[in-house]
Structures are given as C-alpha cells and as structure tokens.
Design goal:
- It contains six helices and seven strands; from the N terminus they run ββαβαββααβααβ.
- The chain is α/β, with parallel strands linked by helices.
- It has one domain: 3-Layer(aba) Sandwich (Rossmann fold), CATH 3.40.50.1240.
- The strands form two sheets. The chain has a five-stranded mixed β-sheet. The chain has a two-stranded antiparallel ribbon with strand order 2-5.
- InterPro entries: His_Pase_superF_clade-1, His_PPase_superfam.
- This is Alpha-ribazole phosphatase.
- It comes from Oxalicibacterium flavum.
C-alpha cells in the first residue's frame, strides 16, 4: 500500500498558541494553494481518510472532488492530541512547572489534563491496523503533524509505548500542507 500523509493547511490562529483539538478554520486561499501543490503528486480514485477537524476536512473534501474519490472517511482516531486546559492558550501563558512536567514525561504526561502521547499513539495504531486489513493500493490521509509522526512510527514496527516515545522525542519539521509518502 502507498500511504500519502498530508498535514493540514495553516489554520487561522495567532502564532505561539496551543490549539491541538480545537476546531479551527483555514482561509480558502490557503486551501487552494495547498491543493494546487498536492494534486500532481496524488493518485486518482484513492481511498481518502481525514481527521474530523475542519482544518483537515476542508482540504480532504476539496481533494476528493479533484481526485474523483469518495468523500473522505472522517476518523476520530486521526484527530490531533487534546491539550485540555492548554487549548487556545499562548504557550508563554502556560505555567513553566506544567511545561517542565510534560518535558520530563513526554509520552505519559497529559498536558492540561487532556490526552497523553501514549493515548494518542494507541488510537493511531488502531487506525493503522484497521487500514492494513483493508487491502487497498493507495490511501490518502489528511491529518496533523503529531498523527503523521505516529503513523510513521507504525512503519518502524514499534510497540505503542515505543511509538509514543519516538514521536514525543523526535522534533518535527512537517510543514503545513506537506505530503509524505510511505510505502507499506
């Protein structure tokens, strides 16, 4: 299977704000720009999956039309990590001891009382295992940088705790609208 992992376009949110699971819009111009860059690299008639958050579904719906695909399957397991009380707060406004607690246990800590990376890794693994059983040639997944890192960790054959540690410790450089292609 060829897995086409796409990070959503830049949402309309101020810089340096924690927004994990918050459902944010994306400017139509941003969607159009990302779509134009992606289309030459994506297969037609592929199975399409998306995080249920608007910054992903707006792009996946637009891609489905252009690629002659069925509407994307919206899957909660592809949603970004929930940062609890940290959602929509400036990173500088989050108390330093809370940030330090997360830094000391990146995989297990639940920022703002939300989800831990370990919990997110388990739902991503469940999605990936189900996807493997579908016997499809091409799958396009529109989601988030954290989810992409975890899906990539699945391809290394890591256990769920190893996936969580891998994703939590590895800084990401996945740009908004970036495409990563994984051959499974």
């Amino acid at each position: 299977m060829h897995l086409y992992l796409i990070r959503h376009p830049r949402p309309t949110v101020p810089p340096k704000v924690c927004y994990g699971r918050t459902d944010l819009a994306v400017a139509q111009e941003e969607i159009a720009s990302v779509k134009a860059a992606l289309l030459p690299h994506l297969p037609r008639h592929a199975r399409l999956f998306s995080s249920p958050l608007r910054r992903c579904t707006d792009l996946s719906d637009s891609l489905a039309q252009e690629l002659d695909c069925e509407t994307a399957t919206r899957d909660e397991r592809l949603a970004e990590m929930h940062f609890g009380d940290w959602e929509m707060r400036a990173w500088d406004d989050i108390p330093r001891p809370d940030i330090d607690a997360w830094a000391s246990d990146m995989a297990g800590y639940r920022p703002g009382g939300g989800e831990s990376v370990l919990e997110v890794a388990q739902r991503v693994r469940d999605f990936r295992d189900e996807l493997s059983g579908m016997q499809i040639e091409h799958a396009i997944v529109v989601c988030h940088a954290g989810i992409i890192r975890l899906l990539a960790a699945c391809e290394h054959g890591l256990s769920v705790p190893e996936m969580a540690r891998y994703a939590a410790q590895k800084p990401h450089k996945i740009r908004y609208g970036e495409l990563l292609i994984v051959d499974c």
